[in-house]
Write a structure and sequence with these properties.
This protein has 605 residues and is mainly α. Strands 1-2 form a two-stranded antiparallel ribbon. Helix 4 runs antiparallel to helix 20 and helix 16 runs antiparallel to helix 18.
């Protein structure tokens, strides 16, 4: 367990120290070796857990004792935590392999250090046994994700995108903080994994709905972060391997894990589960509509990812947390592969990301074409491959409850998803070439090192449904009726139907219909919700931050603020009542203020 958890962190510290002292170091080799050893170790832990039922717990450092309960800082990994950690470390390894010939050498040290730090603190959050440790792991993960996104901070668009990312993440901690407070008030414990009968009965009726909505507000803001125009409209300079790891795996994994560990509190409440289904369904549709009109390849994939997370929320409400966790794993592997495939296209096109300036790349990049096509097939529920096991489970539940409308909606969703994927493939590979002849002569195939992680991810995406059928999901052999098979094939048919549609449309060369143009503009604007977010949240917050910074003198930062914090700490020590909820409030509030303060310094730097 030591190698799986602490080796990446120590490797990051060593590389950072060597770079700080201006000593020559093999950052990529050291980082890849550390993550590779961690992956092998955690895979062996997974086998021991599955076949031997072994649970891993690693004591790190003492924390605090209240009311006779020891709240220590430790990593406690059971089946779900180990399974998620395996995918996190695996995707980190794939990103490191992909980046070898993709990233400029002067950026390699920073990339490796930030990626290793992100992996380490993700596992710290996943393996938390108290809420304070979980909160620290969550926010430090966001901080390292911010540093990865800001790898090309000299570009103004990247700086703006990174600042917005960190601000939104910090603001979205507020409802999560309220959830922790409610949980501590009800159960009298910091432990987030202690689902005893008394804890499960803590929230009933309206309280359960409030509890669920608070969780959804916080987690949805983080899960859908990359699907919001406020952020992804400035992703042109963000490194593709960083985007592929941060968006689906790192923050998405931690967000789904939050829903997973809190779901037992609310799964018996029909109203709450309906909230999950409706919220997830609307998000899935919104993600598809906004992705269908995008021309930037990164933006399109990020908004498809947002729609896929909506699909996971729907599975939470419809089936339960085990199937939802499978849906998430079935999502991240092909979507990570798609983003990395997009990286090979962008690199071959000399950093061009606009779909309207591509076309005809199939003969130049056949490996990328077939890889992206197969990754798309793995996302649309094609029978016996990709995410078909989870989709089949959804059809089984809908048929069991005689919800024919639900079956129809699911089929239409899969067809629309495949249709959007077909537009992506057509614009890049099958349309008439839109690039200049000089670019065409410079297009190169992805290197062998870049191709290796794509092939591994593709194999894993193809056969992951067999793993789910044999492990977590129920026996679905009787669920594959003729009706369900037709629905699965109709959903996947959106891929060839879309390619045929766009090919015919290009051949006819018809001018766009004004009504369709208005609809496209409406979807492209994110239904104008992003403008609302900017006015209500982002602009007002940035104005307040700028005002505070102008009037914050050096004396206030270096003398007055430390003295005030010292006096506050002394008063809290004298007046502390010993209640876990009070200690939780003050601890998390202090951490929240600290991260806000650091955020301003990062923005200025």
């Amino acid at each position: 367990m030591f190698f799986a958890v602490l080796l990446p962190f120590f490797a990051a510290c060593y590389i950072f120290a060597a770079a700080f002292l201006k000593k020559k170091t093999f950052a990529w080799e050291i980082g890849t070796a550390a993550v590779g050893l961690a992956f092998l170790n955690i895979v062996s832990m997974a086998f021991n857990n599955v076949f031997g039922g072994q649970v891993y717990s690693l004591f790190l450092l003492p924390f605090v004792s209240l009311n006779g309960i020891d709240y220590d800082w430790r990593l406690h990994l059971e089946t779900t935590e180990i399974f998620l950690a395996v995918f996190i470390v695996f995707c980190a390894l794939m990103s490191l392999l992909f980046v070898k010939d993709f990233l400029a050498r002067e950026k390699m040290n920073s990339f490796v250090v930030f990626l290793l730090g992100l992996v380490s603190f993700l596992i710290v959050g996943i393996g938390a046994k108290n809420m304070f440790q979980f909160f620290v792991g969550w926010d430090l993960s966001a901080l390292f994700a911010y540093l990865l996104l800001m790898l090309f901070h000299e570009k103004q668009a990247v700086r703006q995108s990174g600042v917005n990312f960190l601000i939104w993440h910090t603001l979205s901690d507020v409802p999560l903080f309220c959830v922790f407070f409610l949980l501590a008030q009800k159960t009298g414990s910091f432990f987030i994994a202690s689902f005893d009968p008394n804890s499960l009965a803590a929230f009933q009726g309206t309280e359960a709905v409030v509890f669920a909505v608070l969780i959804l507000l916080s987690v949805s803001a983080k899960l859908f972060l990359f699907g919001t125009n406020i952020f992804v409209s400035q992703t042109a300079g963000i490194c593709v391997p960083a985007l592929s790891f941060i968006a689906p795996t790192a923050l998405g994994g931690l967000g789904v894990y939050v829903l997973y560990i809190f779901f037992p509190f609310i799964e018996e409440n029909a109203t709450v589960r309906t909230v999950f289904i409706v919220w997830g369904g609307l998000t899935a549709v919104a993600g598809l509509l906004t992705a269908a009109v995008q021309t930037n390849i990164k933006v399109l994939l990020c908004q498809l990812l947002m729609g896929q997370f909506g699909f996971v929320l729907t599975v939470f409400g419809l089936i339960g947390r085990d199937a939802a966790f499978c849906a998430y794993i079935a999502l991240i592997t092909p979507m990570t592969g798609l983003i990395l495939c997009a990286g090979t296209v962008i690199q071959a096109m000399q950093s061009e990301e606009d779909l309207s300036r591509m076309g005809g790349l199939k003969k130049y990049l056949p490996f990328s074409f077939w890889s992206m096509t197969l990754f798309c097939v793995c996302c649309v529920g094609f029978p016996q491959i990709g995410n078909s096991a989870v989709v089949l489970d959804m059809y089984a539940v809908l048929n069991e409850r005689a919800l024919n409308e639900g079956c129809l909606f699911l089929t239409l969703y899969l067809f629309a998803l495949a249709f959007v994927f077909s537009r992506l493939l057509f614009k890049i590979f099958l349309a008439e070439p839109k690039f200049s002849a000089t670019i065409g002569t410079k297009i190169e195939q992805p290197s062998k090192i870049e191709s290796l992680p794509l092939m591994i991810l593709l194999l894993l995406s193809f056969f992951q449904n067999k793993v789910f059928e044999q492990s977590v999901l129920p026996d679905l052999s009787g669920a594959l009726s003729a009706k369900v098979m037709v629905c699965l094939l109709l959903g996947a048919y959106g891929l060839p139907a879309g390619i045929y549609f766009f090919k015919r449309k290009e051949q006819k060369g018809q001018p766009p219909i004004p009504l369709v143009q208005k609809l496209n503009r409406f979807c492209l604007k994110g239904f104008y919700l992003t403008d609302f977010y900017q006015v209500v949240f982002v602009r007002s917050f940035m104005a307040l931050a700028e005002l505070a910074w102008r009037f914050a003198g050096s004396e206030m930062l270096t003398e007055n603020l430390p003295k005030a914090l010292k006096k506050t700490a002394e008063k809290l020590q004298k007046t502390h009542s010993g209640k876990p909820s009070d200690f939780l409030v003050w601890s998390l509030a202090g951490l929240f203020v600290l991260i806000f303060s650091l955020m301003f310094l990062l923005i200025r730097g």
